[in-house]
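Supplementary material to the annual report.
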Amino acid sequence: MEKKLNVLLSDLIVFYHKLQNFHWYVSGLNFFQVHGQLEEMYNGILPQIDSIGELILMINGKPVSNMKQFLENAEIEESEGEFQNDVKKIFEVLKEDYKHLLNKAEEIKADADDKNDYLVSANMDELIGSYSKVIWMISQASK
Ligand SMILES: [Fe+2]
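Predicted assembly:
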């Protein structure tokens, strides 16, 4: 459980920076809208990072806490620092990352439920709700 939560924590750190990377490097006619949307997304990830770190402490584990460890544990791929005006592509990449986070949260919830670990399970419920909503919104925008 602790290991899986640390992978999720590391994924969230990488994903936070990936969203900010796209926020900085998005270009083109849709800049204003997408730039703002990406900021909203990374601001949504920030409190989740803190919650998962503290959840690991609450179950008497040790959250990974430096960049070297985050990169060693993360499964989400970092993005290049290149200007990108293909908004559809940006959201395709992000949708896959949100799906990855959703799968991780569901996996952890299933483990927690097996062990009657209500605290971890409840924390995963929040993430599952949040990622499902973003995935749905990106899908709507891509139609
Ligand atoms: Fe900004």
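The chain has a mean pLDDT of 97.
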